[in-house]
Amino acid sequence: MNILRQSLRSSTFSRPLSRTVYIPPSQIPVQPYPKRGEPAPDTPNFYTARPAYYDQVGSLEKAIATTRTSLKNLRLLPLPDFARQSLPPLHPVWKTQAEMAAEFQDKLTSTRYRRMTKLLNQLNDYHRIAQTAGHTTLAEGIRDIIELFEAGNKEALLARGKRKKVVLDEYGRSYTVGKRKTSSARVWMIPIQEPVEDSKSPQSLLGLGNIKPRKPTVTPATILVNNIPLNEYFPIPGDRERVTRPLKAAGALGAYNIFALVRGGGTTGQSDALGVGIAKGLVAHNPALETPFRRSKLSRRDPRMVERKKTNLLKARKARTWVKR
């Protein structure tokens, strides 16, 4: 009875055995991942508050590190102090804070602007070293980076403090202007022409052609001020000394015919203005005198002016006598 019951139970509740079928990996269909809603940012600085600014800072720091490594491999760094002082100066003119802020399309504080200019100055220093050493490829690469941050009106800004070069006319005359206080002087200078020796002159026929002609004597008439000789226009020796000081310093006393027109002020201001104009004319005729004249301040205008009178004072600083009662 039990045997029959077991046979019926096994036949009634039997289940088919499941077998796993092997599928090669190449035949398994691959389900692609769902695409993200936003693409990945181009730079990690995207997650900062000012990505454009930090991108520029990072690129400058990378350029400085690369340039420093190249200069060290060329044995140009570290540079001794005496060698660094002998480098030719390069005057950079960077973009203003407002221009950089407009380029970055964000507000640029003074601290961040100073950081940018500090990095640019360091890169410009490396450019000086590479250019002086003759490594043109490295210098041009640095130059391309520096030009991105230079002001557009760089040439005009650098030429703002420079004087216009005095050009001689077709007769070899120079025209300069000197000023002192309220006086002004316009000066025309021309070198004294040496007499030309004529081959058919009586001296050459008599065999006296080798004798050099005498130089003209130095007289006050070689300097005319308002068409008046110098000693008559300035009777005070101190005024005449201020006029002839540049000529004596250059060793050119009597070497030029000088005509001047002075206006305004007194004799002291006019003589100082005339001296400055003569010094500028000497530099125009002999550019080698520019450095010594600049160091001795002969070609520089004296900026001092008369101090104005104040209210309740007798003069600029003179006060009334104080009375107790």
Structure in words:
By secondary structure, the chain is of the alpha+beta class. Helices cover 41% and strands 9% of the residues. The protein contains 12 helices and 5 strands. The chain has helices at 2-12, 51-73, 81-85, 97-104, 110-133, 136-146, 154-158, 202-205, 230-233, 237-250, 267-285, 290-295, and strands at 174-180, 183-191, 223-225, 228-229, 256-263. Strands 1-2-5-3-4 form a 5-stranded mixed β-sheet.
* H/I helix tally: 12
Low-confidence stretches: none
Q: Would you tell me the structural class of the helices and strands?
A: alpha+beta
C-alpha geometry: elongated
> In sequence order, what are the helices and strands, one letter per element?
HHHHHHHEEHEEHHEHH
What does the average pLDDT come to?
A: 85
**Main sheet, how many strands, which sense, barrel?**
5 strands, mixed
Specify the helix fraction band.
40-55%
Strand residues, percent: 5-15%
Q: Largest beta sheet: what is the strand line-up?
A: 1-2-5-3-4
Number of strands: 5
Rounded to the nearest angstrom, the distance between the terminal CA atoms is: 154 Å
Query: In angstroms, what is the radius of gyration?
Result: 43 Å
Keywords: Ribonucleoprotein, Ribosomal protein
InterPro entries: Ribosomal_Su5_D2-typ_SF, Ribosomal_uS9, Ribosomal_uS9_CS, Ribsml_uS5_D2-typ_fold_subgr
GO molecular function: RNA binding; structural constituent of ribosome
Pfam families: Ribosomal_S9
